[in-house]
Amino acid sequence: MKKLTIILCAIIIALPSCKQEKQIKNIILMIPDGTSWSAISTARWFQRYQNPKDSSLHLDKYLCGSILTYCSNAPIGDSAPTTSCYMTGYPSLVDWVATYPIADPENDIVQMDSAKAYQPLITLMEAARIAGNKSTGLVVTCEFPHATPADCAAHSYRRGRYDWIAPQIVHNNIDVVIGGGVSILREDDKQYLKEEGYGVFLNQIDSFRTYSGDKMWALFKDKDMSFDIDRNPEEEPSLAEMTGVALKKLSQNKNGFVLMVEGSKIDWAAHANDTRAIIDDVLAFDKACGVALDFAEKDGNTLVVIVPDHGNSGLSIGHSRCPDYALLSKDQLFKNVSQYKTSVQGLIKVLHKTSPDSIKNVVLELTGITLSDKQYEELLKCKDYKLSSLTDQQRMKGTSLSQKIGDMLVENTCFGYTTHGHTGEEVFLAVYDPTPNRMTGHHTNIELNHYLRRSLRLPQTLETLTDEHFAKHTEVFATYDYEISEKKIEDTTNVNTKSKIEKFDVTLSVSNGSNKLSVKPYTNIVSLNGEKIKLNSVTVYVDKNKTFYLPRSLAKLLE
Fold this sequence. Notes:
The radius of gyration is 26 Å and the shape is globular. The chain has three domains: 338 residues, Alkaline Phosphatase, subunit A; 91 residues, Diphtheria Toxin Repressor, domain 2 (Orthogonal Bundle), CATH 1.10.60; 88 residues, Copper Amine Oxidase, Chain A, domain 1 (2-Layer Sandwich), CATH 3.30.457. The longest helix is centred in the middle third of the chain and has 25 residues. The chain is of the alpha/beta class. The protein has a ten-stranded mixed beta sheet with strand order 5-6-4-3-7-1-8-13-2-14, sandwiched between helices. Strands 16-17-18-19-20 form a five-stranded antiparallel beta sheet, with no helix packed on it. It has 21 helices and 22 strands.
């Protein structure tokens, strides 16, 4: 009996060590676009200035390291290749979305394989749906085909080709998409979504809030949504509210989900050196982090990773234009910016409706700045001030309202900027991980992708899925007759670069005896002998190498 008691005690003591480790079922990747450490510091100080008891952000207690982000051939990246690396595990080139880059041997930071150039790369979000039967979601404040959301569910070597990217996002069967871009969603895309059982709400905030279905597209504003400081809550939901709605719907899937939430317009504010817009959008993003972290803590099986894609603008708290700036009190540093009631773009919209004789009063009301006569004259000279009392000839050499107002608002503070562009410093990392495997310390963008991969524990690797779903048509149909036809549709303008581009209607036709297969790019639908067949992934056409990338399984349809 004594021996049995000893054995039982030993078993009981050993039980805790045998306890099965928790497994990650859900991933929430939260990206404050273009957010440098200094932007976080500025927002935290501003919040503390407004309410001394509110001295920390929701993400603060989860800060645990830093991430070095870069392009395949350069240290400073834009959103396309940086988030692309988080999603695929491969750094790429500026403007390239989830696509293997052209090798640049003299400059490549990581050795790239030239034979794989232009290869679409399966993303973590696509893999979670295809291999893990998980739900997926995108929540953004930019237009939905913008670089960061595109990196999750589309493939292109040109981030500005929304005509290539938008239909891929539509046809990638993402369960929840909430953001901007009403004017970009085509009629045939709306029809497809409705046929697939989605609730589609365009500038319909009440329907967005009351819809009970699990699959939703809800878009607000023609392109990007408003900066948070300019947002009308009766027309546009907050990022926190959008995150909460997405989580409620996605969490219905017993297999879990992958959600990407982007504070998109922090980056846009940083490009404009718009300090108050940066602050308010960082704080709005942090509230969304609070929603995600609260969900994760209650759920117990959710990983939350909060990480920017790159830095932007070189913002500093303190500038040499202010004498003894290092000795300034918090009131001296933050009082002026606290009086700004709108973003730079918000003020421009108001001024376009303001006659010259009312400009001084409007600027004073919205910014607290009393314009000098010189500043007033400079605004009148701005080439794009529609109601200026000056002639076009007098304004010909003037700068834009955006430049002039941006400079004026910055000069009224003791904040500084080094650039209007992206910067190459490492970005912060904050992680909530319910398992013992939490990533800490300094890592690269590639290593972050590998951490996310390991956490999901998918049965197939991203590389295997890429090979299955994005094989070259020349390989897939090597034993069949095929041809690609291109018919020019129109000349149009790239939404980002404003450069001229040509649009083509492209079709891949494949035949084997009486079987005829027709494939269009950027969709999950092919036609076999006139009958539509839905695929589990989208097809991609790359005009540079005249190649379709599509599932290997298509060859079996022709047997």
